[in-house]
Amino acid sequence: MTTLQPQIDALEAAITQMADGKTNLLDPLLNMLDALREDAAALARRAEELASLYEVGQEIVSIRKLDQMLESILDRALVLVDAERGFLVLCDWERDALNVPVARQFSQGEVDSAHIELSHDIVRRVLASREPVMTTNAQEDPRFQTSHSIIAYQIRSVLAVPMLAKENCIGAIYVDTRLSSRLFGKDDLALLVAMANQAAVAIQLARLYEDLQTRNRELQEAIHELQETQDELIRAERLTVIGRMASSIVHDLKNPMTTIKGYASLLGKEGLPPEMRQKFSDIITRSVDSFVEMTQEILDYAQGGGPLQPAPVPLGTFLHDLCDFVEPGFKEHELTLSREFAYMGPLTIDETKIRRALYNIISNAVDAMHPGGSLTVSTLRTGNRVEIRLADTGPGIPEAIRDSLFEPFVTYGKARGTGLGLAIVHKTVRDHGGTISVDSVAGQGATFIVQLPLG
């Protein structure tokens, strides 16, 4: 019963009443109504079939696992065309082989692609031509007279359709029946073709999904291996840094310790003139100072410099004290120290750390210059920042270390030092919210520019 049937019945009653026994008028109208009933019934069947086809499409595309999807496709196909048996074929074009992953009402031996059973000829024909095959009397169909399975299994009606996704034929769906009362028709063929096309797209998507999952697992494994390799490299780099640092420390501390030991033994000699004793004592004192400086550099680097303790400091007084402290060393090396302070007002800094940073730069300049050289310390305020310049007349920064100047363990042409001085300077200035840069021309000296915020 369709939704149009009551209206057609009511129309027939009305026509019969109006015709009032006039056969010549009533019979053609009744014939037209019978044809209308048939069309309405066919339309209803088509609507049901389309609804079923839609449900099939919704179901199969919602399945992500390929093996589950293939079973669902075949089960739905059997129900859709009311078939007795069936199987699904997937193509392996590279090996020129057929794979039968799912079958219903067949034994495993019957669906084994290595056997020429279950209408293998029909499937081959469909895959080769990419055209569907339908027969309502397979026993007498001349196309299948050579197929032993048609005769052996008394197959009556057959549908076989390719699964096409654009230009790719990925397999076929085969269904049959041995019941004379259930013969496939064109509508069944159209339904199975439509479903096979949906299935082909769904299978391709499932394969892509599985491939994506596989690649994702491989990527995760690769990332895990890369992480392990990176961890190993980091551990190796740490050991290398520790080795370099230990080597640098041992080498650089050896010199002042050797000096101390040598002159300490000389001080023990009897009859040593007072002036010589004082000279040796001064040398030992300077060696101890050098030793303390290097150990402090190591501690500062290892401890990250520690937290800042900023406080307002009169910059002029601070720099004059620093220059007064280092000036005797300049005179000893026949060097000149100049002061050009355009700004001498307050500056909020950690006095101890900035003093240490500037002292490191000045010490490097003293080591780099020859007698007659000079260093100029100048200041300038620009907006809310103060610029401190330390310009020497030494040989300049070598090209070999210019890009890595502020990295740890970078030294060039120095007889002593851990290579940590400028690395600590860079960190100290950065911790203050400032910047440090260097202008240098080979043979024309170097100028270190420290910029610090006022507050």
Could you please describe the fold and organization of this structure?
It is a single chain. By secondary structure, the chain is an alpha+beta fold. The chain folds into three domains: 62 residues; 146 residues, 2-Layer Sandwich (Beta-Lactamase), CATH 3.30.450; 150 residues, 2-Layer Sandwich (Heat Shock Protein 90), CATH 3.30.565.10. It is built from eleven helices and twelve strands. The strands form three sheets. It has a five-stranded antiparallel β-sheet with strand order 2-1-5-4-3, with helices on both faces. A five-stranded mixed β-sheet has the order 7-9-10-12-11, covered by helices on one side. It has a two-stranded antiparallel sheet with strand order 6-8. Helix 3 packs antiparallel against helix 7. The two termini are 91 Å apart. About 1% of the residues have low confidence.
Task: Give a quick set of tags describing it.
3 domains; 18% strand; single chain; 455 residues; alpha+beta; Beta-Lactamase; 12 strands; 54% helix; Heat Shock Protein 90; five-stranded mixed sheet; five-stranded antiparallel sheet
Write the layout of secondary structure elements.
Layout: H1 5-19, H2 23-61, H3 66-81, E1 85-92, E2 97-104, H4 108-111, H5 120-129, E3 133-135, H6 148-152, E4 157-165, E5 168-177, H7 186-267, H8 274-302, E6 311-314, H9 315-332, E7 336-341, E8 346-349, H10 351-368, E9 374-382, E10 385-392, H11 421-431, E11 435-440, E12 446-453
Parallel strand pairs: 7-9
Antiparallel strand pairs: 1-2, 1-5, 3-4, 4-5, 6-8, 9-10, 10-12, 11-12
Helix pairs in contact: 1-2, 2-3, 2-7, 3-7, 7-8, 9-10, 10-11
